[in-house]
Amino acid sequence: MFIINRNRAYYRHHRKRAINRKLDIVRNAWHSGESHPWVKEPGRLDKERMCCSCYMCKYEKNFDVTKTSYRKRLEAMDREIVDYLNGDY
């Protein structure tokens, strides 16, 4: 098993990335502006769960939209079948 040594900079980077993503949700999706307590103290957002089941957050699930990665995989399979039938394999 290969163990990756991660330093403090790695953990700081990902903590900051998670906080910025959640701050964007608080500011833009919730329209809270600068008065919200989480905007004043963004470090609290590190462990905060921002799970939501509204139609805006779970658009793909509620409207049966296939995910991009799944759609690309299906298209690649279709191309392979067409290539096989055409003899281009």
The gist of it:
This protein has helices spanning 8-29, 37-40, 59-62, 68-86.
Tags for this model:
mainly alpha; 89 residues; 0% strand; 4 helices; 55% helix; 2 domains
Question: How would you characterize the overall build of this protein?
Answer:
With 89 residues, this protein is mostly helical. It folds into two domains: 1-50, no CATH class; 58-89. It contains four helices and no strands. It has helices spanning 8-29, 37-40, 59-62, 68-86. The longest helix is centred in the first third of the chain and has 22 residues, at 8-29.
Compressed to H and E, one letter per element, the order equals HHHH
Q: Rg from C-alpha positions? A: 21 Å
Describe the sheet with the most strands. Answer: none
In whole angstroms, how far apart are the ends? 37 Å
Q: How much is the average pLDDT? A: 84
- Low-pLDDT runs: none
Please give the count of helices: 4
Fraction of helical residues: 55-70%
What class would the helix/strand composition place it in?
Answer: mainly alpha
Shape, principal axes of CA atoms: flat
Number of strands: 0
Counting structural domains, the number is 2
Strand content: under 5%
Write the layout of secondary structure elements.
Elements: H1 8-29, H2 37-40, H3 59-62, H4 68-86
